[in-house]
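Comment thread on ticket #2218

A.B. wrote:
> Attaching the input chain for the structure job we discussed in standup.
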Amino acid sequence: MRYGATIEYDGSAYYGFQKQKNGPTVQEELERAISSVSGKTVTVIGAGRTDSGVHALGQVIAFDLDWNHGTQDLLRAMNAKLPDDIAIECLSEKKAEFHPRFDAKRRTYQYHIYNQSIRSPLSRLVSWHVDQPLDVDSMNKAAESIVGQHDFATFGQSPSGRSTVRQVFQANWRAQDGLLKFTIEADAYLFRMVRSLVGSMKVVGEGSWSVEEFIDALKAKERDRSAKTAPPQGLFLTAINYQ
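C.D. wrote:
> Ran it. Output below, let me know if you need it in another format.
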């Protein structure tokens, strides 16, 4: 049986989602939990390969398992074996051909900037502290310019080495109690695309770049035209849309 699940995790302690040699990953912990409750070795497939330190509220995974009990029993058993910073939010049976990555139509990310003069110790692992006031209106004008189909070569590298053209369906900033939240929904992303966009919109917000300079950087399609990439801890994978 193929199972699909939506998971949430704090990526602070992990070298990203995908299994690698450098250190612990979310995929490893998931596979270890499933093996512990079932006695079987499985491979977990993820919808998005989040980087080291990046979090998720709506990551989707799939795995194949012979399980003779109900899905809720499997969910509870896995959560009992997972570390405190990873949790299965929901789990269900899927068609055998379901693939969380290749079947996805849209992916939504959110980035948090803690925009206050005094740093917040409780926010340090889930946001980027920027003490200089940022102009959210200018940042939103820059965000508006990336909606639609564009070549985002300035802001990332293609994981497959092929096209750097992506379709962005929405991109906007909103301020809430000193926290600036950037939401972006696209069909797919380049490597470090969201963090590079955020880093470049941040310099627009502080006045180092104009909105026109941001647009010129986008049109240049040259990786070195991006501003400094935003740090990973403020980034969240929030939703995967299969419709």
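A.B. wrote:
> Thanks. Noting for the ticket: The domain at 2-94 is CATH 3.30.70.580 (Alpha-Beta Plaits).
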